[in-house]
Structure formats: structure tokens, C-alpha cells
Amino acid sequence: MSQDEAVREIKERIDIVELVGDVVPLRKVGKNFRGLCPFHAEKTPSFYVSPDRQTFHCYGCGRGGDIFSFVMEKEGLSFPEALETLAERAGVRLARRTGNRRSLSEVMELALAFYRETLLGPSGEPARRYLESRSLPPPAWSRFELGWAPPAWDGLWNWLRGKGVSRQEAISCGLIIEGQKGDYDRFRGRVIFPIRDIAGKLTAFGGRILSGEGAKYINSPEGPLFNKRSLLYLLPAAKGPIREKGEAILVEGYMDALRLHLCGFHNAVATLGTSLTTEQAALLKRMSDRVLICYDSDAAGQDATLRGMSLLQNEGLEVRVVELPRGKDPDELLASVGGDGLFGQALSRAMPLPLYHVHARREALAGPGRKKAVEEILAGLAELPMLDLVPYLGAIASSLGIFSHQLSELLNLRQGQKKGSPPPEKRDSALSGVLVKEGQRNPAEDLPDSLESALLYLLWKCPERRAAAAPEALLPLFGDERIQGAVAALLNGEPPESLRKIWYETGNRFLGSALAAGGDFCEAFGDPNEAWQKIETGLRKRNAEKEYRILREKMTRGLATSEEMSRLNWLARMLKGRR
Ligand SMILES: [Zn+2]
Q: Which CATH architecture fits 104-226?
């Protein structure tokens, strides 16, 4: 192939959005993608990639070009070097190669060719039967490059030797194992799933045993090619869709990931049978803002799994947990009749991680293990960034039977404790303290806010209004956590009388006076509906002004992100319109 042909071929095979997206986090804006320029320091993204024109351009420093200029600029390469790098990535063979050493990934590709051929050959019969029984038809075998490692001790090794692969190369690739009686194949009698890195390079295999002894699944060993901490199964196929949707679906098994792709959920990836790692979390964060966790229902609530999810949330991703019907994994559900619909419903009901912590322990909370469950929930929540918890404090507090300000105090204590401050005794006494009675506050600085009190009062008086209110829209309006907690409890179905009783029993005078103040305030309006309207609008405006002031301050100090800048502009326009 001539160099011109090679360049054309490479440009056809490599998408600039993927190439650039592997090193620069990109977000879709209209037809194009935008990110922070990798060539100059900036806080507001002015670096654009056009999928139509297959070019990039930075409005800040003026750099721009195609995939070749990008690699040359980014890696400091000459054109021939960039050509070689991209040819490797695209799988295009150049006329003259520097040196003739075979790369390890070429050895891996040879092995994959063997496995795929064997699946279709006479010895692949049991594997083909198995795949068909799992509702994976032949077109899926080739689409996902599935293979079969025959049960023989050295089927692959003999074949590789015939292709001139050295013993050292095969060992480095983790394909053969040195034994006392000679070298033998690592994967025997297993269905083979090839694992490629984000750039599509083949770096490992996963193998599922069909019968006999041995672990159900094994992976290639860690080695020069394979670092399983930073791999996700099917990532090369999923990365485009993940970027497009700004959302990834994370499953546990190879089969689950395959099934999701077959059913049209192209943004699905699987962990490699281990708990999530920070590397995987960072990888996902580069491409998306949200991850839907879709494990089978038995695994999802377990501590290790919850910790993995916290890792994602701490990486800055919004984590939601998809709950499947009991005992089903995604593969089973989707392969069953009507499974598509059920799965889609489950996705749309995915629960924010903070709420899931409570949900996962709902049975223990209702039983004799309640105290332990509360402890575990608090410990789990304390692992999450406080900012991510705030929207859910009211709802969580009411499920735990405490007020939301108490919940946030408990969490603050725990988070502080992780950083080395207050000792355990302090924490425990604080816990029993707030669970028994309301803490002491200075009455002089403790006047209930009239707008918030009025809203509480209107909800208190009117069951229809409580039934019609949307908690997620209403709760963020409250600045006082105590009023917010009471409103959350009301919206959660707690009868007003029983709330009043709790306040009496716990010596809480604040909420009683808030109710009274709210009643006074509402008297000024004849019609409660008009009062509701005015008060809600007033609170929204006040919150918008507060947010405006905070962002304004951030902007003045040069700390605002581009999202915050556009939010600031939006708030300014909105507040101006309201005046
Ligand atoms: Zn730039």
C-alpha cells in the first residue's frame, strides 16, 4: 500500500472524536464536541472537534488540523512517526516497517484468530451448543469475536509455534504456562471473550469453562499487556455511545455486556469480575457524567459493591443504581420474553446512590437489626461527597426516623472523623443525643423563616396539596433543614398529628413556632392557592439570588467553570425578567 493510500485508509478507520476523546474529555455541543484545549492552559473550553469535518480547532491558541496533526502536536512526533502510530491503531499495514519485531498484541491477535477458527471447527461443537443455549446466535459470535479454546493441553501453543511465535512471546502474553512436564495452554475447554483496551488493542482474554474442574471464569494474568485495573469489557464499542449519551451502563459479566449490546444498549461495559477500581472510574469519567449500575440484585446491596459505587461518585460521576427483579441478572432478564420492556423500565427508575444506601437495607431497617442498619447506612453515606447528599437529606432522614439537620450533623461528624477529628465517644453520644431529643439552640437567633414556614403550614393543612407536591422540586426550596425535614416527612406520608406528637416528645419547639408563624403569614392572603403561588415563587427567586451571589463571587475570583458561567448568565437573565 502506498503512503497516500495508507493515509486515506487510516483516516477512514479512525474517528477523530474517539482519538481526541481518549486524551481530552469531550462533551457534545450541537453537532460538535468541546473540551479543554490540551495544547494551552485554559479553564473555559475553547477546543472544538468536528465529527463531520474530522478536524479539531482551538479558538484560544489557534491550533487545529486532522488526526495526524493532532498526534504530531500532542506526542511531539514527526509525520512518519505519527503515521506509524496511527497505522498501528487503525490496523493498517504500512509498506516499510521499522524493524521486524512482532508486537505482543500481534501475538494476541494470532491467538484470537486461532480461538475464533476453533469455535467454528469440529472441536468447537460443545461451545457452539452452549452459546446457542444462552441465546447467542452465530452473528453475535463474529460481532463480538468470540472463540473457543479446545480442551487439549497444547492446541494453541502448537499452532502459535507453527506461526513462528517464540516461547518467551507466548509466555509474556500469558497464553501459555510453564509446567513441570512442559509448557501448556492457559485457556483450555473455555469459551473465549477477547478484551480490548480503549484504543481497540487486544490486551487480554476472558475464558468461561464449560465443564470439569476450575474457576467458572478466568482472565489473562497481569503482564506487560494487561492491566485489568484500567480495562472495561466492550469499551471500544461502547465509548462512542457513552459519549453521545453522557451515560454508561455498568454490568458485571461478559454475558451481561454482550446481551445489552445485542438489545440495543450500546453504552454498556462490564468490569472484569473484580470490584471497581479508581482507574476504571477515571476512565468512565473521561467520557460521561453518569453511570447506571446494573448488577444482579443479590450482589448490588453488598458492602464491597456499594464501596465501588462510592468510588465512582467520588470521581465526580452521578451514580444511579438499577434494580432488577429479584434473582435476575441483566442477561437472564433481557433474554426472557418481554425482558426488553422490563429492563427499560428498570433503567428509567434507576435510583440515586444516596437513596439506594437506604433502599438496600430497607428490610433490616424494619426489623430487629435496625440500629446496626442505621449505623451501616450512615457509614456508607459518609463516604460520599456532602454536596451530592444534600438533595436527598430530607428523604433519607425521614426513612431513618430522624430530622434532616440531625442526619447532616451525624454525617458531618463522620466525615470529620475520617479526617482525624472528633473521637468515637463524641460521635456515639452525638448519635444517641439527636436520636433522643432535639439539641439546644439559642432562641434569639432561631426565628423561623416566614416564607418557608408558610409553605410548611399550607402543606400541613391540606392533604390534597401534599399528595400533589413533587418532593424533588419542592424540597430544594428550603434553606432551613428542620423545616425541610418536616416537609419531607409530610410528603412521605407522615400524618401531621404524629409529627406534632414527636415534636412534643422530643421537646422540639421550633417547628411548632414555625407552623404558627406560617399560619400568620398566610392570613394576609385570602385564597390559599394564591398564597401558595406567591410564596413558592418568592422562595424560588430567593434561592436563585443566593445561587447568583455565590457564582458571582466565584467568577470574580476566577474559579467558575464554564458550566457555572452559563448557569450564572441564565440566572442573571431570569432574575432580570422577574424584576
Ligand atoms: Zn488551545
A: Alpha-Beta Complex (3.90)
